[in-house]
Structure formats: C-alpha cells, structure tokens
Design brief:
Elements (H helix, E strand, L loop, with lengths): L1 E2 L6 E5 L4 E8 L6 E6 L2 E4 L2 E3 L2 E3 L3 E2 L6 E8 L8 E9 L2 E12 L4 H27 L10 H17 L1
Parallel strand pairs: 2-11
Antiparallel strand pairs: 1-3, 3-9, 4-5, 4-10, 6-7, 7-9, 8-9, 10-11
Protein name: Putative cell adhesion molecule ixodes scapularis cell adhesion molecule
Keywords: Membrane, Transmembrane, Transmembrane helix
Length: about 160
C-alpha cells in the first residue's frame, strides 16, 4: 500500500471553519477495513461522530487501485489541532497515514481596533509633546547657535532656581 503525492502532510484551517483531512493511497487488493483515529477516538469510514464525518472511500479517477479517504471536521476548534491517522487494512497487511491539522485563530476585530486606536493616541501625544518643546524653545535647532542654545538653557535653569 502506497501513499499518493496528493496527500498533504499538514492541513490548515481557521477557527470556526470546516476542514477536510484527506489521504490518497493505493492498495491492491481493495482495503477491507479503513478507519480514522485521533486521541482516544476511532471512526470507521462511512460514519460520523458529532462534528466529525468520515466519508466513504472514493476511487481515485486518475490512478488505478488508488482511493481517497476524507475526514470532514465541522467548525474546527483550537483543540482540533492534532494529528489524524487513517488506518488501512487489506488481505496483504495493515498500514497507516497521518495528516496534521493546524487550527489558526483569526485576530479578533476588537484587537485590531485597539491596536489602531493605541497607535493614533501615541502619535497625537508624541506630536503634541514635540510641538510644545519646539515652541517653548526647550529643543534648539538652527534658530540659534549651540552656544546660544546652551546659554539659553543655563539662563532658564538659573531663573528657575531664583524663583
């Protein structure tokens, strides 16, 4: 029994979306038993368990003696991030194929809004402070020489001491 290159090792799905974990394999003779397993669960193809549906085996149209097994997971949750294994048995033996499911959690819209508002507030505070420092001449630029700027700062310091 061989695994087809059509099988992906990792399947990604966003939280609350449906996901399909698929294995394409070749076997001659046809499998007599196939089931999906994860954690402590075992689900025969052609049956369902809650949000999990193991579809019946499908013959692959492109490859002779090849089959597709699909495990559908409805509204995936974070806890569904794990390895799912398809077990296949025919008259010649047993084998298994594993596929990992990675559940991605989308950023909450409130988090995106909070980051945007925080950035705007930071920018306003920074610009306000910058304008204040320039207007009060606490930041010296080209309007004065370095000596004049140092004298101005020293004079302000002395004026504050004598108050």
């Amino acid at each position: 029994m061989l695994e087809s290159s059509k099988t992906r090792a990792v399947v990604e799905a966003s939280k609350e979306e449906d996901a399909a974990v698929t294995v394409v394999f070749c076997a001659d003779p046809k499998p007599v038993e196939t089931y999906w397993s994860w954690g402590s669960y075992k689900l025969k193809t052609g049956s369902a368990l809650g949000r999990f549906v193991a579809e019946p085996l499908l013959s692959d149209e492109e490859l002779e003696d090849c089959y597709e097994s699909r495990l559908l997971i409805q509204k995936v949750e974070s806890d569904d991030s794990r390895k799912f294994t398809l077990f296949v048995e025919n008259e010649k033996g047993k084998t298994s194929y594993s596929v990992a499911l990675e559940v991605k959690e989308p950023l909450a819209m409130t988090l995106v809004i909070a980051i945007a508002v925080g950035g705007v507030v930071f920018l306003i505070v920074f610009l306000t402070l910058f304008v204040y420092l320039v207007r009060s001449e606490k930041m010296c630029f080209r309007r004065r020489t370095v000596m004049e700027c140092e004298d101005h700062i020293n004079m302000q310091g002395l004026a504050n001491i004598h108050k």
